[in-house]
C-alpha cells in the first residue's frame, strides 16, 4: 500500500492501473482512521470478502467526507467505470429498464469502489444470473434501546434451536452496528415469495411465544426494549450489509462472522463489547479462523414446511 499523501497516486492492482486519492483524509475522526487505512483493510480482507461479493448485485453507501459525513446510496454502477468492471443487469419495474449493478468480483474492482468512498458494501441475497432467487434466508435482529446485542444473542439462540430441530445449519454475524444477523444457507431453487413468507410467519410465532423479548411488527414504536426480528430483508429489492464490510460508525467496526460459542459467551457474560470488532481485529480473526462464513456459500438446504 503506498504511503498516504494528498495527491493522486497511481497503483497497479491485478494488472490494472488505478488512480487513488486523498489517502490521508480522516474517515473516522474518533480514531484517526484514514481513507488509506480503509483501502488497506479492503485489500487485506479481500481473500475472504470477494467470494461473498462475487456475482451479487452490489449497492454501495458512499461517504465522500468520511463515516460521520453525508452519504448516498448508489445502485447503478457509475457510468464512467473502467471497462474491466463487470456489471449485473437487474430489471427494475419502477424504472422500466435494467439497473446495471457493479459486480465486485475481483480485487481491482473492490479497490476502485473503495477509492470512490464506498465505505459500506450491501449485497443482494441473490447470485447472478439467478437474480430472482435468494441463496439464503436472513434474519436481521435489531435491538430497540435499552435492549442491546446481548438481547439479540438470546433471540439468535432461540432461532438456532428451531433450525437445529429441523436439521438446518445457521450462521451468525454481527451487523457491525448494534445488532446481530442470522443466515440460513439454501443454495437451492426457491423464491423470494417463499422465503419472505417463511420468515414472516416464523418471526410472528416467536413474537407470540416471547412477547416480552421479541417483536415482529414493523412499527418502530413497538420496539422499545425488545428485539425486532426483521423478516422483511428477504426481499428481491432489498440488500443486507455484506459480511466483512466496514460500517460508518464512530469506530471502524466491521460486520463480522462469529461462532455460536461466542454468542453463548455473550449471553453468559452480558458484555456487548465482546461482539464489537474493528478492522484490525477482523484481520487478526480471519488470519486465525479463516472465513467462518464460507459454508454459507456452499451448503444446500431446504426450508421446512410452514403455514
Topology:
Blueprint: E1 9-13, E2 16-20, E3 26-28, E4 33-34, H1 35-53, E5 58-62, E6 72-74, E7 86-92, E8 97-103, H2 107-115, E9 118-123, E10 126-127, E11 130-134, E12 136-143, H3 149-165, E13 171-174, E14 180-185, H4 192-209, E15 214-215, E16 227-230, E17 240-241, H5 260-269, H6 279-289
Parallel strand pairs: 15-16
Antiparallel strand pairs: 1-2, 3-4, 5-6, 5-9, 7-8, 9-17, 10-11, 12-14, 12-16, 13-14
Helix pairs in contact: 1-2, 1-6, 3-5
Features:
NHEJ_LigD, five-stranded mixed beta sheet, 27% helix, MtLigD_Pol-like, alpha+beta, 307 residues, Multifunctional non-homologous end joining protein LigD, disordered N terminus, four-stranded antiparallel beta sheet, 25% strand
Give an overview of the whole structure.
The structure is a single chain. This protein is α+β, with helices and mostly antiparallel strands and 307 residues long. It has a domain at 136-236 and 257-275: Alpha-Beta Plaits, CATH 3.30.70. It contains 6 helices and 17 strands. The protein has helices at 35-53, 107-115, 149-165, 192-209, 260-269, 279-289; strands at 9-13, 16-20, 26-28, 33-34, 58-62, 72-74, 86-92, 97-103, 118-123, 126-127, 130-134, 136-143, 171-174, 180-185, 214-215, 227-230, 240-241. Strands 13-14-12-16-15 form a 5-stranded mixed β-sheet, with helices on one face. Strands 6-5-9-17 form a 4-stranded antiparallel β-sheet. Helix 1 crosses helix 2 (107-115).
Amino acid at each position: 500500500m503506498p504511503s498516504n499523501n494528498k495527491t493522486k497516486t497511481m497503483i497497479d492492482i491485478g494488472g490494472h492501473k488505478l488512480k487513488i486519492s486523498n489517502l490521508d483524509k480522516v474517515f473516522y475522526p474518533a480514531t484517526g482512521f484514514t481513507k488509506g487505512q480503509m483501502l488497506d483493510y479492503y485489500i487485506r480482507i479481500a481473500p475472504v470478502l470477494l467470494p461473498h461479493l462475487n456475482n451479487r448485485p452490489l449497492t454501495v453507501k458512499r461517504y465522500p467526507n468520511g463515516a460521520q459525513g453525508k452519504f448516498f446510496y448508489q445502485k447503478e454502477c457509475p457510468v464512467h467505470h473502467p471497462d474491466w468492471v463487470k456489471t449485473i443487469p437487474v430489471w427494475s419495474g419502477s424504472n422500466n429498464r435494467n439497473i446495471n449493478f457493479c459486480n465486485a468480483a475481483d480485487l481491482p474492482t473492490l479497490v476502485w469502489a473503495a477509492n470512490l468512498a464506498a465505505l459500506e458494501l450491501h449485497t443482494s441475497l441473490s447470485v447472478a444470473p439467478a437474480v430472482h432467487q435468494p441463496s439464503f434466508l436472513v434474519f436481521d435482529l435489531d435491538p430497540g434501546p435499552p435492549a442491546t446485542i446481548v438481547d439479540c444473542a438470546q433471540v439468535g439462540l432461540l432461532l438456532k434451536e428451531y433450525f437445529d430441530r429441523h436439521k438446518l445449519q445457521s450462521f451468525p454475524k454481527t451487523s457491525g452496528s448494534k445488532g446481530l444477523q442470522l443466515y440460513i444457507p439454501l443454495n437451492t431453487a426457491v423464491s423470494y415469495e417463499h422465503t419472505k413468507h417463511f420468515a414472516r410467519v416464523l418471526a410472528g410465532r416467536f413474537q407470540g411465544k416471547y412477547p416480552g423479548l421479541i417483536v415482529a411488527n414493523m412499527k418502530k414504536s413497538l420496539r422499545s426494549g425488545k428485539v425486532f426480528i426483521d423478516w422483511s430483508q428477504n426481499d428481491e429489492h432489498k440488500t443486507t450489509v455484506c459480511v466483512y464490510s466496514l460500517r460508518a460508525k464512530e469506530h471502524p467496526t466491521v460486520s463480522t462472522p462469529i461462532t455460536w460459542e461466542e454468542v453463548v459467551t455473550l449471553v453468559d457474560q452480558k458484555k456487548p463489547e465482546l461482539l464489537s470488532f474493528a478492522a484490525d481485529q477482523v484481520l487478526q480473526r480471519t488470519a486465525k479462523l479463516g472465513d467462518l462464513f464460507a459454508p454459507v456459500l456452499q451448503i444446500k438446504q431446504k426450508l421446512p414446511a410452514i403455514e
